[in-house]
Amino acid sequence: MTPPTFLPLAEDPAPERRDAARNRDAVLGAALRLVDEQGPCAVTMDDIAASAGVGKATVFRRFGSRAGLMTAVLDHTEAEWQAAVISGPPPLGPGAAPMDRLVAFGRTRMEQTLAHAELIEAAGSTTTRNRAAYSFIAMHVRHLLRELDVRGDVPLLATALLAPLEAVVLRQQVEVEGLSTERIAAAWEDVVRRVVAG
Prior knowledge:
This is AcrR family transcriptional regulator. Residues 21-81 form the HTH tetR-type domain. It holds the Pfam family TetR_N. Residues 44-63 bind DNA. One of its GO terms (molecular function) is DNA-binding transcription factor activity. The protein is mostly helical. It folds into 2 domains: 17-64, Arc Repressor Mutant, subunit A; 65-197, Tetracycline Repressor, domain 2 (Orthogonal Bundle). The protein has 10 helices and no strands. The protein has helices at 18-38, 45-52, 56-63, 66-87, 98-115, 117-123, 127-147, 154-162, 167-176, 181-197. Helix 1 (18-38) packs across helix 4 (66-87) and helix 3 (56-63) packs across helix 4 (66-87). The longest helix has 22 residues, at 66-87. The chain is elongated, with a radius of gyration of 20 Å. The model has no long low-confidence stretch (mean pLDDT 89).
């Protein structure tokens, strides 16, 4: 039996045409590849359009701006990391003790942020991406803190633990102050253990 079809509602977005979806995928694929090969600062919209086999106007029509396209690239990498948190192998993924998961979370979040620091900067202050990414990591850290029976204001404790993992903080420590990532990760773990111990 064929499922019923419903008429679209007035406020529903128009369905995406196949060629438009194909162009979007081609542009995003080209952007992912070129950013990985050259870094976000070296890649131009012309490079991406040529690699995707579309006109530059198509790139702007699909993503609005260079920052919008860099945000889409960043969202893709963020989604891969989030998938590892949700269902990847332990200790980052399920199956490990909450403390082990929290420590793995901090270390991989730091590595992810530093690896994509230029991309985060190129994406600019795109509120949607920032809110979505922050909501995910905040909920995850709160969940782990609750599993660890942490007392106190868990949402604010989670925020305090997440602040050192922001790109602006990490870049200052690594690029300006010359701190090693190992030292930063060890210090973060020390703070986590102090919070958990109460």
